[in-house]
Here is the input.
Amino acid sequence: MSESVRIDLWLWSVRQTKTRSLATSECKAGHVRINGNVAKPSSPVKIGDEVRYRFQGFDRVLQVSALITKRTSATQAQLCYIDKSPHRPKVYVPLFTRERGTGRPTKKERRELDRIRRRDSNYGHIG
Here is the structure.
């Protein structure tokens, strides 16, 4: 086994991206870092390296524990890295629910819905 693997191939192999071309695109866009340095798709990754990349607006931090070049099962892929990502914050979205079959909302309920949805209830009115 070689001592290093291309970062785009490794990200795809450990199932962090759906396709290798997506991993390449992420590297080219500057969303992937190896030990704090921006990584090109051909950058080598070694055991012990820290890989950071943006995923859905949050940073994923992975420490490389094994090198693989073939995409394997999810359980085998998880053995190839140690996930050191900070926990994502829980987002609380207040929901306004009404009982089914209660008819049209009252003016008060409509204003409450607009407030929750952050809409201006006076939109379209002159005055």
